[in-house]
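Internal tracking record. Fields below are filled automatically when a chain is submitted to the structure queue. Please do not edit lines marked as system-generated. If the sequence contains nonstandard residues, flag them in the REMARKS field before resubmitting.
Queue: standard
Priority: normal
Entity type: single polypeptide chain
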Amino acid sequence: MKKIRAILIIIAAALVFAGCAGTENMAEPVIAAGTMREEIAQPTALVNIATEASDILETTAAHTAYITMETTSITESVTETTSDIHGIIEATQQSTAPQVITRPPGEKMLAITFDDGPGRYTQPILDLLEKYGGRATFFVLGGRVWNNRYILKNIMAQGSEVAGHSWHHINFLSLGEQCIRDQIEYTDRAIYNITRVEPPRFFRPPFGAFNETVRDVALDTGTAIIMWSVDPRDWESRDPDRIYNYIMERAHDGGIIVAHDIHRTTAEAMERVIPSLIERGFKLVTVSELLGETVPGRVYYSEFRSAD
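SYSTEM-GENERATED OUTPUT FOLLOWS
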């Protein structure tokens, strides 16, 4: 049943996002100085949709064969599934509320975040966090969730968290309100269908790009926008030493680090970054643990810096 639901969401998302192709939002960007990456490109929506559609068709074909094979057993498992749902609901109610860590005097807290996954380097980073007793927040793409569903479950089991980063990494500045909303809500729904835990009430827009329209949608959907205070530009340098040095020079109490778990060089840098930060007295926490309850429509750059 869960598999069928997940595939239906993938198909529905493809149809919805196809309708967003060519939609443009003409509002001028309103972005705090120094927060938007210089490399922001204006993606070609049709190319993005075509690529996503190809991925969806491939995924759907594989899972259709699986569903056909398992259809005869679905009825027999309904009773067991219904029983499981009650346990899932109880666990969800207990785990979805943001937990704020009470700091001992002098303790420093820091949130490392990873964008654009899940991917092949997500699990190695997760293993490092487990080894050293840290946690992180993974901002995932909805289009990658199903094929990496076991990684999402591992993230949750390790104590880290999963949040949305859009469905297929399209620049929100090129979209209208409804398409932005769809990107956020379909991704959150895909995450929930795998983890059975409601995603936190915040997201990170692709490229860190937002304007008043994006903020209006965030406010309307009851979500906050999470940016960052430390950006090693790991996607650009692809140099583990440079990534490590940048983070270690600028890491600060209450900070939010942005990195990308789709690059091998980032995973290599984390082999030194994670233990080094802990040795310096930082407690590595999730964004939810760092910020607690967030305010819808508000933009957060760190624990101590945000903007309405």
